[in-house]
Amino acid sequence: MGDWYRDFANSGVGSTLVEQLGLPRPAVLRRHEPGAPLLTGPAVVGTAGEGRLHETVIRVLEDAGVPVQPPAATDGERLGAVLLDATGVTSPADLAAVHEFLAPALRRLGPSGRVLVLAGPPSDAGSPAQAAARQALEGLVRSVAKELRNGATANLLVVPAGAEAAVPGPVRFFLSGRSAYVDGQVVPLTATDVPAGEDAERPLAGKVAVVTGAARGIGASIARVMARDGASVVGVDVPAAGQSLAEVANEIGGTAFQLDITAPDAAQRLIAHLRERHGGVDIVVHNAGITRDKLLVNMDAARWNPVMAVNLQAQLDTTQALLDADGLLRTGARVVCVSSQSGIAGNRGQTNYAASKAGVIGMVRAWAPAFAERGATINAVAPGFIVTEMTATMPFGTREVGSRINSLQQGGLPVDVAETIAWLSQPSAAGVNGQVVRVCGQSFLGA
Amino acid sequence: MAPQTRKAAIVGGNRIPFARANSAYAQASNQDMLTATLDGLVARFGLQGRQLGEVVAGAVLKHSRDFNLTREAVLGSRLSAATPAYDVQQACGTGLEAAILVANKIALGQIESGIAGGVDTTSDAPLAIHDEMRRVLIALSSARTLRQRLEALAGVRPGMFVPEAPRNAEPRTGLSMGEHQAITARQWGISREDQDELAVRSHRNLAAAYDRGFFDDLVTPYLGLARDENLRPDTSVEKLAELEPVFGTGDPDATMTAGNSTPLSDGASAVLLASDEWAASRGLPVLAHLVDAQTAAVDHVHGGEGLLMAPAYAVPVLLARNGLTLQDFDYYEVHEAFASTVLATLAAWEDPAFCKERLGLDAPLGAIDRSRLNVNGSSLAAGHPFAATGGRIVASLAKQLHEAGPGKRGLISVCAAGGQGVVAVLES
Ligand SMILES: NC(=O)c1ccc[n+]([C@@H]2O[C@H](COP(=O)([O-])OP(=O)(O)OC[C@H]3O[C@@H](n4cnc5c(N)ncnc54)[C@H](O)[C@@H]3O)[C@@H](O)[C@H]2O)c1
Q1: Which of A1, A210, A237 to mutate to test the pocket of ligand 1 (most atoms within 8 A of CB)?
Q2: Are residues A160 and A228 in the same domain?
Q3: Do A108 and A215 sit in the same domain of this protein?
Q4: Count of structural domains, chain B
Q5: pLDDT tens per residue across span A106-146
Q6: How far is the CA of A311 from the centre of ligand 1 (A)?
Q7: For chain A, counts of helices (H) and of strands (E)
Q8: Contact B220/A269, CB-based, under 8 Å?
């Protein structure tokens, strides 16, 4: 299931051949390992206009032990990250400073380097000119992401006034190896209280996390990452998948709860289980999902209904039941719903699946205010082409094309989706609510 | 001074689906199955790396290399290697006896938690070498000179290469269990129709229990099997009526068929028992308590009693000690070794003569409400890997009682080879 082409293109003979033929050379991405430094090289931090986040960003870097170089430094060392506080831009004229700062810095960006821009939201701009400048940054960042090579990524954090406390967590995520396959994304933050004192190595310590569809694939990876980050994981999957579910649970010191999430009493059984065993729950990941592909004109109810039931209705019913269950969903709870690129871009043969996955996005957005009132969040993650047992069975051509049509020129791994979900589950991700984060290497589909 | 006792809690259980012999688990050994079953229990209750008081289990058909079967399974499992274990064997009563042993140690405060289990395979059963061949080989290994060795080998005859398979036969009567039961069925006049009806109800009840998710937290799939392989949800009295009798066929009115007798099966089960405090401190449920238990044995060789009738004797002792009548139960689990075993046992309890003469009671124990019998199916549908049956029943009944609410009572009755019976009372 490895990426044979990436490995070939990075081998001795392969790299020469790939260069001569002008073929893409997908990089081996930097992924998070416990104890790994936040960045592999120093960072530079620039500002455009009178920014308000410069100090915050510098503090994050210093706390993580990342050396911060002045923008003008010219020694040859490769940069780990280029950060730009663009909250001060007031008009398109200020963007010249953005260009001036980024151009030389990007030239020095090392492999799997990070470009992170922080800007104010166009929607609360003081003038059309300011809104234009802020919006312009989106186009700029998305284009930079497409220009970067060697596994480097570029993303944009949109920070409204008052949301400064929400910035450090997301900054750490986007700089770290946890965000390896998140590229070209715009993530708006909201002003909220952010609990302090998170352990960087075990940010989920003491949390109880439910992961549906945990027996294999992306769900098993989510369970592993959650456990690595300190959570007690309750893995849920259909009874028929019980043997591998038990193996996953035993590997990570979690528990296996065999449950078909579409059973009429599924939510109540889950709630009773959580109450009895854990007294409550902090994190719920709706990951279980199925596909039953067919062109719409040929689709029967036997393909339509189960996809809706598993991918959308069960997420709705379970979430509602959790909200209704007195005191079960703990303060600061996190719900993360797995959507899909198909739900954003649509996909031939997947009207049922894409509808269900788009529905998840609608659900998350609609619930966000209610979650915010409880100091909780609900978000969606939309994976792109993720290399799993499922994709391994795709025809060679389809798989090759599917995995290359993104800025990182490769498919993502289940762990990439898992890392993003684990990040959204962290206390310090409190400012991300009602959002859809794509884990797609900046896929060309639906972009 | 008599020690203070407490009632052991049944926290939950796990089993693998039971397979028919030489089928899904043909390549699995007793140790494989027991280890997988323990691991499923570990995953269900988060026991990874935990040191428990004791693990007690056994197998009826056992290889000599499995002399420490349970301990080896513990070592191969995710439990702490510091968890002690021992094997027990009481034929088909093994699993229930193991639960009683663990419960008793918990009751006495000698341990706080333990697992009781059982496993059996008829697919990977031990084959013994021919007894004379065995003697030759022993002589050979003690021979010191070449000459002595050649002399020892000269004793080998072709017939000695035929292995001896374990037989499902009583050593003292030479009769198989089915043949014994056929005698009992005839004595009690158990009709073919009643037996088939009981078998059909077992399949229906088991299928319904699966369908409503009852086994979701009692069974963990294994080697591609998610439900008991023997289960036939769509079987019917008409279909079963077509089967030819297989036991007691010397009698023209033979009634026992493959449909109303348990098939040879492979599988394993385990039950987690603990003190209430141990369970509470870990956020684990108490489904029921094991209140009391009793064993009995009958003389099936010379005493004129049926091989599988011992539970009929054990139950009244248990009832008397606990001040209960046979009707004081919300659920009954009478192991379906054969449909006729269940029916003969119930008939015996209703029979004034049997109760007076054999049990020494003034009045018969009486009839039970059949709608409370084996409500989630039993061995005829699930299959009966001998030592695994007790654990299946204890965990399922405990869950059933828990679902019914506090203060519900259940009776377990298991017959075993050698004319033995093991019975127990659970209460939620
Ligand atoms: N693999 C990809 O490229 C990709 C891309 C986009 C989105 N996704 C989404 O990611 C999620 C995980 O996908 P995957 O590739 O790991 O799939 P997978 O099929 O490997 O795993 C899905 C798991 O969900 C479980 N499940 C299905 N129905 C269930 C039910 N009713 N109750 C409980 N569990 C149930 C399955 O048994 C399975 O273990 C899905 O929601 C999928 O739509 C995957």
Answers
A1: A237
A2: no
A3: no
A4: 2
A5: 999 999 999 999 999 999 999 999 999 999 999 999 999 99
A6: 9
A7: 16, 13
A8: no
> Cβ(A394) to ligand 1 under 6 A?
no
Query: Catalytic pick from A173, A181, A257, A353?
Result: A353
Regarding whether B156 and B185 lie in a shared domain, the answer is no
Those residues with Cβ within 8 angstroms of residue A173's Cβ, 6 or more apart along the chain or in another chain? A179, A420, A423, A429
Beta bridge partners of B225: B222
Report how many domains make up chain A. Answer: 2
**Residue A271 belongs to domain spanning:** 208-439
Taking only Cα atoms into account, the Rg of chain A, rounded to an integer number of angstroms, comes to 22
Is A5 labeled as catalytic in the residue annotation?
Answer: no
**Rounded average pLDDT over A300-316:** 98
Inside any domain, residue A194: no
pLDDT tens digits, one per residue of A187-196: 999 999 999 8
The verdict on the CB of residue A244 being under 6 Å from ligand 1 is no
Residue ranges of the alpha helices (H) in B155-219?
Answer: 177-187, 192-211
Task: Determine the residue type at A333.
Answer: A
Among A residues 267-296, those touching chain B with beta carbons less than 8 Å apart: 269, 276-279
Q: Kindly report, residue by residue over A350-403, the tens digit of the pLDDT.
A: 999 999 999 999 999 999 999 999 999 999 999 999 998 777 777 888 888 888
Whether the per-residue pLDDT at B326 is higher than 70: the answer is: yes
Report ipTM (2 d.p.): 0.90
Of A188, A219, A241, the one marking the end of a domain is: A188
DSSP H stretches of helix in A33-179: 54-63, 95-107, 128-147, 168-175
A216/A110 same-domain check: no
CATH value at residue B364: 3.40.47.10
Indicate yes or no: CB of A276 within 8 angstroms of CB of B78.
Answer: no
Assess A255–B contact: CB distance below 8 Å, yes or no. Answer: yes
Residues of B in contact with A250 (CB under 8 A): 39, 42-43, 48, 78
A195-248 pLDDT, tens digit each? 988 898 999 999 999 999 999 999 999 999 999 999 999 999 999 999 999 999
Same domain? B301 vs B156: no
A219 lines ligand 1 (CB under 6 A): yes
| DSSP string covering A371-389 | HHHTT-EEEEEEE-SB-SH
Nearest to B248 by CA among B160, B344, B162: B344
pLDDT over 90, % of chain A: 86
Are B221 and A257 in contact (CB < 8 Å)?
Answer: no
Atom of ligand 1 nearest to the CA of A241: 37
The response to whether residue A9 sits with its C-beta less than 6 Å from ligand 1 reads no
DSSP string covering B255-294: -EESSSBPPPEEEEEEEEEE-HHHHHHTT----EEEEEEE
Question: Does B220 contact A260 at a Cβ distance shorter than 8 Å?
Answer: no
Ligand 1 atom, smallest distance to A385 CA:
3
For residue B166, pLDDT over 60 is answered with no
B367-376, pLDDT tens digit by residue?
A: 999 999 999 9
For A233, the token pair is 């994981």
Residue A256 in contact with partner chain B when CB distance is under 8 A: yes
Rounded Cα gap, residues A182 and A415, in angstroms = 12
Where in the sequence is the domain holding B209, given as residue range(s)? 177-214+290-427
Mean pLDDT across B267-285: 97
For a pLDDT cut of 90, what percent of chain B falls above it? 81
Mean pLDDT, range B347-369, rounded to an integer: 96
Are the beta carbons of A256 and B40 separated by less than 8 Å? yes
Closest chain B C-alpha to A396 CA, distance in angstroms: 28
Other residues' Cβ atoms within 10 Å of the Cβ of residue B116: 33
Residues B303 and B371 in one domain: yes
Any domain includes A15: no
Q: Write the residue in B42, B216, B219 that is nearest to A250 by C-beta.
A: B42
Out of A181, A238, A317, mutate this one to test ligand 1's pocket (max ligand atoms within 8 Å of CB): namely: A238
pLDDT band at residue A25 under the 50/70/90 scheme: confident
Does some domain include residue B40?
A: no
